[in-house]
Amino acid sequence: MKLQQLRQQIFHHDSSALLIFSDINIRYLSGFSGHAATVLLTEKNNYLLTDYRYVEQAKAQTKDFIVICRQREKQSLASLIAELLQKDNSQLLMFESGHICVDQWQQIENEIRCLESIEQIEAVTGAAERLRYIKYDQEITAISQAAQIADQALANIQPLVKEGITERELAIELEYQMALLGSEEVSFATILLFGERSALPHGIPSNRKLKPGDLILIDFGAVMNGYRSDMTRTYVFGKASTEQRQVYRLVRNAQQAALDALKPGIKGHELYQHSADILLASDYKNYVGEGLGHGVGLELHELPFIGPACGQSIEKGCVITIEPGIYIPGWGGIRIEDDVVLTENGMEILTRAPRDLLEL
């Protein structure tokens, strides 16, 4: 289905061909989860090109693909591609220009331009990514399973939150819990920050020790069947101050405003504005993070990128994050992030850890 959709989307020439270099797009279209692969789609065939390290895996994971094992010492990738294009008499070659370096592409192009059959070479961008925008049921299920693992792992580490533990130690424990619960890997490098360091939106866990009154910002995710979750929670170690409660309530209200407005067909910039109207009218308007969220799936950051310039519509089957935040240098930051999907029955929040301010 995915492969056929891509063909219908971009094959407007009887002798078209498409080269796909992105590991993520290859997995999406073929099911192959390894590396060192290139996909060549022609009007006649679907080829997956790899080497001896992955050939058996590719045969096991794909269907409707001809898997070719390239002997790297005897044949270059460029010459193999040229050979297959000539065999299938391809005339128009399109290629993913955003997923190959200039040097490698020049090698391929030099081989291809020697072919008499090739009449045109055309760069394409975002073809598979646009298909990935709307998730199938099995994709949503995988993201939901990853979110459930993250929820449980977060609950499992809360008893470890004690004075003197470092950011790095707690981050390692969180990642360990996700692995025990079945996560294939971490969705991304865990962001776990204490106190004033929580004002770093994507800070790296350090040896900073936890102290009473600290904010604790945790941004992390799990992976199931290649699909990623992404959640942020912010806590207070000990009793929250009046200002901590005030800022948390502000961020929580901004997130809820976006969640309440979410419906099929709403533009990304419209959704952003519902949250921004609350944050930018506050005393903390100078500390508001840019944007509201992003799509999530096989990659952590996918279409749409929700912000003031986002003209894309949010449709049924989209899985997005809603993550407003306020970051005050020297004081700390508060972000609340959830994964949300639009379904036939409305909106569903996939990340279910409590969103109320917890004093640990």
UniProtKB/TrEMBL annotation:
Q: Where is the Peptidase M24 domain?
A: 142-344
SUPFAM superfamilies found in the cross-reference section: Creatinase/aminopeptidase, Creatinase/prolidase N-terminal domain
Q: Does Hydrolase appear among the keywords?
A: yes
Q: Which InterPro entries match?
A: Creatin/AminoP/Spt16_N, Creatinase/aminopeptidase-like, Creatinase_N, Pept_M24, Pept_M24_MAP, Peptidase_M24B
Q: Where are the transmembrane segments?
A: none
PANTHER family the UniProt entry points to: AMINOPEPTIDASE, AMINOPEPTIDASE YPDF
What are the entry keywords? Aminopeptidase, Hydrolase, Protease
- Entry superkingdom: Bacteria
| Protein name in UniProt | Aminopeptidase P family protein
Occurrences of domain Creatinase N-terminal (ranges): 3-134
Give the species this sequence originates from: Thalassomonas viridans
Record's keyword annotation contains Hydrolase: yes
GO molecular function annotation: aminopeptidase activity; metalloexopeptidase activity
